[in-house]
Structures are given as C-alpha cells and as structure tokens.
Amino acid sequence: MIPAEILKKVRRIQIVTSAIVQDVFAGQYHSAFKGRGMEFEEVREYQPGDDVRGIDWNVTARTGRPFVKNYREERELTVVLLVDVSASQSFGTRAQLKSELVAELGATLAFSAIQNNDKVGLVLFTDRVEKFVPPRKGLRHALRVVRELLYHEPAGRQTSVSAALDYLNRVFMRRAVVFLVSDFQCPDFSGPLRVTRHRHDLIPVLVRDEREYALPRVGLVELVDPETGEQRLVDTSSASVRRRYVQLTAQREQALVSLLRRMKLDAIRIDTGASFVEPLTAFFRQRGSRR
Fold first, then answer.
1. CATH 3.40.50.410: does it fit domain 4-31+75-203+272-290?
2. Max Cα distance, the chain (Å)
3. Chain-centre distance of CA 66, in angstroms?
4. Which of 113, 167, 247, 261 is most buried, by the most CB atoms less than 10 A from its CB?
5. pLDDT of 155 strictly over 90
6. pTM of the prediction?
C-alpha cells in the first residue's frame, strides 16, 4: 500500500511538471529527438522548390505530370530514465534533496515523452539494478514512473554506473533515448559508456549540490560518506583545508567532464535548490537547432 504522503507528492509533481511540459517544453522535446526513420506517406504533384530527387518517375510517366514521393517521420521513440538512487542522492543543502530534484526532472521527461506518444521506461540503480519498469505509453504509466522515483527503497547504498549501463545494453536491443541521471560518485565506467553511446542516444544528467564543491567556514565538522559510511573530522576554519577541498572536487568534476567530451556526449547539469527548467530548455533548443 502506497502511503498517502507519497500519493500527495505524486499529485503535486504531476501538477507542477505538467504545467512545465505544456508551457515551456511544448514542441521543444519533439524537435530535439529524431524518430526511428522516414516512412512513405503519399505521392503528390510536384511543386516549385521540391527536390527533384524525390520525383516518382513511374507515376510521372503514367500521368504525364511530375509527382514526388512524400515521407513523414516515424515518430515513436523509447525513452529510458536510468536513475541513480544510491545513498548520496539523499543529500541536499538548499531546501531540496538531490533525490527530490531528480523526481521532478524524471516526471517532466516522462510527461514530455507521453505527450508525444513515445514510450517511457525506468531503471533504478545503486551498485546493482534495483528496479526495472518496462517502457509503455499513457498517463497512468507515467504516474507509475513518478511513484517509483519517490517511493522506491533501495537495497544498495553505493553507485555503479557500469552495472546500470551493462544492464541497459542487455535489455534494450533497439536504439533508445537514454537519460542517465546521477551524481557519478563511482569508479571508472568509461568502458560501458563507450558501448552505450554507440547503441543508444545517451544523455548524461549531472546532479549537483553546491556544498559538494565548497565547504562553509563553520569550524570542526564531521563529514560522513553516505555510500561507504566513512567518517572524517574536518576543520573548515582552515583556509588551506577549504582550498584543498575545492581543488580535489574540481579535479574530479573536470575528469568527468573530459570523459563525456571525449565520448562526444552532451551533458545536462542540474543543481539542488535551482530550477532544472533552464538547463533542460537549453539542451532541447541545442538539440533542435542541430536537427
């Protein structure tokens, strides 16, 4: 039985994200992603400006007037949300946990897909695959995706992007649009990433919180790694300690960004306490302009 509190959250997210989909992303999602191909639709009379390579010579010869073949995009796509639900997602310092931000983002992507008559599926992972919701259409299915994002209690605590990508590549044989949503606090996953980018349209989404990249000056603080349980006492009043912390986290971020660039992957960064609408809109527009 799903708690009433979770159902209320689902309803609230549905109201908020549906408005975003209608008002902000209308048309942008559609233009950002290509369909599976072009399907023959009809033959019509040639009009000035039509590509002569599209002329149907059989019909033209039969009628004595030039006709061209008209095609339409075979639109239906499969969208997969590959979402990290490890213990580090329960962190947040700006009135919002990373997991809450991810739930809102996931709902927006799910409702965008459903509105465009695409299928949407969900894979939740930690250091293992926790949950698989096969792709389907319809509002009821999209709401199920949102419920799983909010309600699922993970068994694992650590993160393995490699395990998630390996599972994806085994289960999805046909090309899909895959949003890989994580803070990427995990060991090297470049091998599976290389395989996945060739098989699918892969979009990494980097989930961030400002306190993961800069320490406040508040004296002695006990820091705990939520995934391993390791504890460390840190003197945040020390400028050298704060500076070293910034350097280490910046190096880790740069290594990740460099990896994604080498793989020629367009990443989206979202931050707790900030709207994800602007970075997602910018991504859709960039994708749409490339088409």
1. yes
2. 88
3. 46
4. 113
5. yes
6. 0.84
